[in-house]
Amino acid sequence: MEQIMMVDLHSQYQKIKEEIDREIFSVIESTQFINGPSVKTFQDNFKNYIKAKHVITCGNGTDALQIAMMALGLKPGDEVITADFTFVATVEVIALLGLKPVLVDVDSETFTIDIEKLKAAITPKTKAIVPVHLFGQAANMKEIVKIAKQHNLYIIEDTAQAIGAEYTFENDKVKKLGTIGDIGCTSFFPSKNLGCFGDGGAIFTNNDEYAEKLHSIVNHGMKVRYYHDNVGVNSRLDTIQAAILNVKLKYLDNYNMARQNAAEYYNNAFKNFDKLQTPVVQDNSTHCFHQYTLVTKNIDRDKLREYLNSKEIPAMVYYPVPLHLQKAYKDDRYKKGDFPVTEMLSKSVISLPMHTELEKEQQDYIIECVLDFINE
Ligand SMILES: *Cc1c(COP(=O)(O)O)cnc(C)c1O
What we know:
Blueprint (H helix, E strand, L loop, with lengths): L8 H22 L6 H14 L3 E5 L2 H11 L7 E5 L5 H8 L3 E5 L10 H7 L4 E5 L10 H11 L2 E5 L7 E3 L5 E3 L6 E5 L13 E5 L2 H11 L20 H11 L2 H19 L5 E2 L14 E5 L4 H10 L29 H9 E4 L7 H16 L1
Parallel strand pairs: 2-3, 2-4, 4-5, 5-8
Antiparallel strand pairs: 1-9, 6-7, 8-9, 10-11, 11-12
Helix pairs in contact: 1-8, 2-8, 3-4, 3-7, 9-12
């Protein structure tokens, strides 16, 4: 059996090595390292894939979120609502822009923003909601869209972990996550479902006005060279990364399917144990399993993790500390106990190896070790 990895990028690369290497070397030969033709091609390919009117690539997923908030003209003091249980990037850019982060607890089954608590967090100063499609699971977009309309709020979707997942509305209209709100953001960090070989990100929208602003902001706020209309940033997807993504995008649906199959295999093995809560798959959306995350019940999660590690099985805790208890985001408005679901999850979740190259033999071994621990 091959060594088990949390994410096996090496085996994945081996399968497409020839194609990838050819693309990389052709960029090197061209020496058009910045904004070379592959960047434009990737924006077009990605636009077709995700079915958004505009795709603007940028340096990484965190930049994507920041640039989206800048493009919407959010002003210092404006309140932006997001989930307490997520990666720090969202709240980080809210803070950097001088906006006011408003944290909301999550649902214990989907791990995405709790709709009733979201409603309760809205004030006259609220300007935007940033739902996070955590671990590849869709936030409740049907309700979020309703709430946003009712209160005239922007929606910026954090799709860094859910690229390729789909959402079906009541009228049977199907949309890719990230194209439902005003602006969608994603990351091409190597371990994401669509990852490049370094940093990368993208922003998508169907709104022409936002698109123009986004194009300008990623490029120092200029449309005409050396004429700066907006305060911008320098955030670009390298040509080499775009060339790699052009190859990998063709395989994204297969990659997501491999993850879904692996998740189903885990689910079948774990679903009948009271000590494990398996991920839910919702009726109206696909789950693209960026992570396969169990909630442990009445067992010592950290001991389980240590046990798995001792059996050469990596396992991770995403995320061990809720945002409202992080030192950098300490705030008088929040204290321990305010977000009971997030606090419970941060103590009890464990993510098992999940990637496109997982073998049945490896999963059987992982399953056996998890069950050995919980049955002991
Ligand atoms: C990875 C990630 C980001 C940030 O992406 P980077 O490319 O690493 O900057 C933002 N939000 C979520 C939920 C993520 O998982």
